[in-house]
Amino acid sequence: MSLDTSAADFAFKLRYADGLDEEYLVSNKPLMQWMENDPNFSTHKGISIPVPYVNPQGIGATNADAVTAEVSSQGVSFVVPQRHVTQYGRIQSDVVRNTLNGGDPDQFTNVLEKEVDGCTESIGSEIHQRSYGDVTGIRSFLSATGAINTTTWYLANAEDAQFYEVGMRLVLVNPSTGAARSPSGGAAITISAVDSLNGTLTVSQNPNYFTSAAAGDGIARLSMVGKDLDGLNAWCPTAVSGSDSFMGVNRSVYRARLAGVYVDVSDRPIRQGLIKAHTVAKGQVGTMFKSKSPHFINPKNLGQLMQSVEAANISTGSLPDSYGLGVETFNIFGHKFVEDSKCPVDTCYLIGSGSVKRATCGKQPQIDDQDGKTFFFNRQNGYLEFVIQHDGNIVVEEPYNIMRMKLPTAAL
């Protein structure tokens, strides 16, 4: 049987009759496992997420007067836009040629499975990392001390090198405005090497290729500036201005209720800082605050915390998740900590159960049909190619159950 796009489409639908394997998307990604999936994001226009913000009526001036000057407020609704994460897959020409010539009939299916699994894992890894970010697409920052006139880009945190891949195209972002530095497109600014030990990227252009480039600038993927997921950095920022307008809501009118709790405890030992943060959050949120929820923390900071206590006070456990995989925890002094390498260094998030969700347009990811076809043939390289896409966004339904802490600098 000749291998054309129709035959490949048939083979794909036969193999993935029930859709792609979501386990590859979330497995070994703690934050994604902890987030429930809500598949009812069915429109590109966005979905409304109401947050409790009500004022019950009191009694009037006399018992006979039940009307007061107060007016019950409606629940505030965030209108969440849909975002897209895309990954291209390809079947090599030699596999295509072998199938065309009557070779092993299982070869195409085996290669297809590996490619689909790899693409799904790649999308999951991207969503996982960006679940801690925001729409600006900033993945990390240029070092405040590194030179900007060399093709070796120095990262502010060496651990952030894991957020990059060879071949990724970059642009610098003004961290104050979230806008891409000019030129924002055109010439390919591409990574050729990643040094995760020293925290450097080898890139085809110097940072000062961009107008007004400066140490401390944000680094983003070229295609994602202003289009990235609305992750925890967006939902629970370090500060909320009086002119805030996040998804149609000015959160400054009630920061703790609408934008979570942010506590800077970087000026004290980590254990003391955690005690202060919990005290502040309970005081700001009240009884709605789920203080026994897990803390998501970078391995470097978790090591710092472990060194501050005796080994006898540390135990391990597991939290159930909706995927049946289980989220591993370290239990320290009655609190649960989840080690997550994608969590920014020197930052810790307490995330209440059910407060953060991955809202999607049906079951995701899925093959993005091209004119009704799963595959298209690239005549320039002889590959049979396809596109896997994830449509949705990160949604926080209980902002008041997000506590963000700035921790003391980890030094191990």
Number of domains: 2
Helix content, binned percent: 10-25%
Gap between N and C termini: 60 Å
| Strand order of the biggest β-sheet | 11-21-16-12-15-14-13
The helix/strand order is: HHHEEEEHHEEEEEEHHEHEHEEEEEEEEE
The average pLDDT is 87
Q: Structural class of the secondary elements? A: alpha+beta
For this structure, the quaternary state is: single chain
Layout of strands and helices, then pairs:
Blueprint: H1 5-15, H2 22-26, H3 30-34, E1 36-38, E2 47-51, E3 76-80, E4 83-91, H4 93-100, H5 105-130, E5 138-141, E6 152-154, E7 170-173, E8 191-195, E9 200-203, E10 218-221, H6 232-235, H7 255-259, E11 261-264, H8 270-285, E12 295-297, H9 299-307, E13 314-319, E14 327-332, E15 335-339, E16 347-351, E17 356-360, E18 366-367, E19 375-378, E20 383-396, E21 402-406
Parallel strand pairs: 1-17, 11-21, 12-15
Antiparallel strand pairs: 2-3, 4-20, 5-10, 6-9, 7-10, 8-9, 12-16, 13-14, 14-15, 16-21, 17-20, 18-20, 19-20
